[in-house]
Amino acid sequence: MILCDIGNTNASFFDGRRVWNLTIDEFMAYEPTEKIYYINVNDKAEQKLLNHLFIDISSYIKLNSTYIGLGIDRAAVCYAINNGLIVDAGSAITLDLMANGCHIGGFIIPGISTTLKSLQNISPRLNLPLNTNIDLDCLPQRTQDAISYGIIKPIVSLISDFSSQKTIYFTGGDGEFLSKFFSQAIYDRMLIFRGMQRAINENKEILC
Amino acid sequence: MILCDIGNTNASFFDGRRVWNLTIDEFMAYEPTEKIYYINVNDKAEQKLLNHLFIDISSYIKLNSTYIGLGIDRAAVCYAINNGLIVDAGSAITLDLMANGCHIGGFIIPGISTTLKSLQNISPRLNLPLNTNIDLDCLPQRTQDAISYGIIKPIVSLISDFSSQKTIYFTGGDGEFLSKFFSQAIYDRMLIFRGMQRAINENKEILC
């Protein structure tokens, strides 16, 4: 069984053993040879998904939530977890709170690379690389640190505020990096596929 | 006496009574008829400033700081204040801490409109206007609020963390909006000109 999560920049595949990525352009040229169970947030990919081997499982992700317009990728990640704060750190970072299988709410902030780029676009003087070893306990004393601190500190503070002793599940490209700032953190790059797999398991008689 | 602060997008003038702005393109076509005491962070404007009526006062802003490469606009704003947290909220937001006339350090985060644009660029689904009336005490339940919360909450939390009962001086385009989240806030759109004026007053015999 192959699962596929189609995002804004990549399509990620999982065959139960390994994960691999295609860019959206590569995905548009990809021809499936077996059933692909997918979720998609990218309007550009819709035409491609008319092939009958692509099976949309979004309606089987029955997340208990009052949130209006929750992206199906966020719903899938949350569907993998019963209790805790879920941080999906990609080009955007979503923070979602789950309690007893219910989605309590969440919000969206720009991701690390997105924020760095937005600062670089303001002025060539801010066109500096991220210092990933920044000490968050000291006020910065040079521009590179001022930017790095200004990117990482708000993210870490927000996560800290919302976790309040709950387990924090990190996923996404920057999930592993951010997880290192927290003792009660679990980094799980497969979270979205676990949520998708749960939806498929609950609907085996229809889907398989 | 006319003061001028040349930034990345605008040049702001102050004649002791009123403030007015020119875009950088307008500034490049502007011909001074009297002395203009300026600070500048925009490399594009350098050529224009060769006119002898433009007087660079940056070397007279003698801020006590160990920060390496502090922008002269940040230094000028800090030079106006002896004690407190200074938040200059424009396309970037700078936070700087002053204690007994010494600059303790500071950092840089993207501004409100910069962050909104960076989210909008990630996905058309995030292309939504800011909800400026967002309730920061409730977890968002729809995408527009999730974005608005994700933009405003980290800024307000950071400022709150760093102010710790100190007076917070807000300036810049979004300064007035952000100041409303704090009881110990002073909004002063003239802060940069107050710092520049202090430097001129301290060096009257040379400059005037």
Describe, in short, the structure shown.
The structure is a homodimer of 208-residue chains. With 208 residues, chain A is an alpha/beta fold.
Enumerate the strands of the largest sheet of chain A in spatial order, edge to edge or round the barrel. 6-9-8-7-10-11
CATH architecture of the largest domain in chain A: 2-Layer Sandwich
Question: Do you know the CATH topology of the largest domain in chain A?
Answer: Nucleotidyltransferase, domain 5
List segments of chain A where confidence is low: pLDDT < 50 over at least 5 consecutive residues: none
Number of strands of chain A: 11
The rough form of chain A would be described as globular
CATH C-level category of the largest domain in chain A: Alpha Beta
Rounded average pLDDT of chain A: 95
Count of folded domains of chain A: 2
Oligomeric composition of the shown chains: homodimer
> SSE order of chain A in H/E notation?
EEEHEEEHEEEHHEHEHH
Taking the sheet with the most strands of chain A, its summary is: 6 strands, mixed
At the fourth level of CATH, the homologous superfamily of the largest domain in chain A is ATPase, nucleotide binding domain
Structural class by helix and strand composition of chain A: alpha/beta
Q: What is the CA-CA span between the terminal residues of chain A?
A: 9 Å
Beta content of chain A: 25-35%
